[in-house]
Amino acid sequence: MREHVERSAGFAPLESVDARTLILGSLPSRRSIECNEYYAHPRNAFWPIMANLVAATGSYEERCKVLGRNQIAVWDVLASSVRPGSLDSDIDLTTAEVNDFTTFFAEHAALERICFNGQAAAKIFRQRVARHIVCSNLQMVTLPSTSPAHAAMNFEQKLELWGLGTGLIPDR
Questions:
Q1: pTM for the model
Q2: What is the CATH number of domain 7-166?
Q3: Any idea where the domains of the chain sit in the sequence?
Q4: Biggest alpha carbon distance in the chain?
Q5: What band does 3 get if pLDDT is binned at 50, 70 and 90?
Q6: Which of 29, 60, 115, 117 is most buried as measured by Cβ atoms within 10 A of its Cβ?
Q7: Would you list the DSSP string of the chain?
Q8: pLDDT (tens digit per residue) in 4-25
């Protein structure tokens, strides 16, 4: 008998009306959902990368404000899905519901670039979203996942690729 697994539900986007870059993950991890914060796992490299690139430090609210001031929005491709664990490979795509990108893109006309936080987010977006709405005017960049599960690269390698891929210059 199959064990019942509840749906994981995502968050509203971190956004500013003048956002030029949208960073998309797949779906928040269990830890993120428990904390009600994007990239809440202490070993996830997202916030340390953002600290290096745009000085996003301090409380979660302060870090989110810094992203907004730097015209960076954060969201996930999926609004919800059944996912027994926190790995992208655990996402049950037969139960997946995508976020409303038609409305998001209409409300964020300044967007120039979508940066995918990992291969899974890019793949799901291309399969479930890009085929159905016009987003050809947006540059799409797949970046290495900031998840601690993606150990093929060290922090410095991820930081360099994120700096190049997002168009952000590290504050050195």
A1: 0.91
A2: 3.40.470.10
A3: 7-166
A4: 55
A5: low
A6: 117
A7: -PPP-PEEE--PPB--TT--EEEEESS--HHHHHHTSTT-STT-SHHHHHHHHH---SSHHHHHHHHHHTTEEEEESEEEEE-SSSSGGG-EEEEEEE--HHHHHHH-TT--EEEEESHHHHHHHHHHTTTTS--TTSEEEEE---STT--SS-HHHHHHHHHHHHTPPP--
A8: 667 888 999 999 999 999 999 9
